[in-house]
Each structure stands twice: as structure tokens, then as C-alpha cells.
Amino acid sequence: MRCIKGWALLFQVFFWSSLVQLSSGQTPSPALAGPSPPPMSNDGKMIDQGIAYVLMLVALLITYLTH
């Protein structure tokens, strides 16, 4: 039980730190920002990488719970 609380605390630390990073990512007004960069193209690589990370996390959790 003590180990599970440690993992929960670690998860909360990563979760809240990611929220802090997202909240500070505001851009200045368009007049001050200058010319806009070209739009990002999505070739599917980011989606594939996200799915791979989720699957790795699921595998890690299953391995942890079965031991």
C-alpha cells in the first residue's frame, strides 16, 4: 500500500507540473508577435508516437499489477 501511494504521488507531481507548463505558454498579441510561422503539418508521426506512449504505459501498469 505504501508503494502505491508513492506512485500516486509521482503521478500527481508529473500531472500538476504539466498543467503549470501549459498555463504559462501564452503568446503575445498578434501585433507584437511579428509574422506568423507556417502552419504545422501533421504527417501522423505525432499520433503514432502518442499511441506508442500510451501502450507502453499500459504495459508498464499491467506488469506492475501482476507482480
From TrEMBL:
Keyword terms, alphabetized: Membrane, Signal, Transmembrane, Transmembrane helix
Pfam families tied to this protein: AGP
Transmembrane segments: 49-66
Position of the signal peptide: 1-25
Keyword Transmembrane helix set for record: yes
InterPro entries listed in its UniProt record: AGP16/20/22/41
Keyword Membrane tagged: yes
The protein, known as: Arabinogalactan peptide 16
Organism encoding this protein: Apostasia shenzhenica
Upper taxonomic lineage: Eukaryota, Viridiplantae, Streptophyta, Embryophyta, Tracheophyta
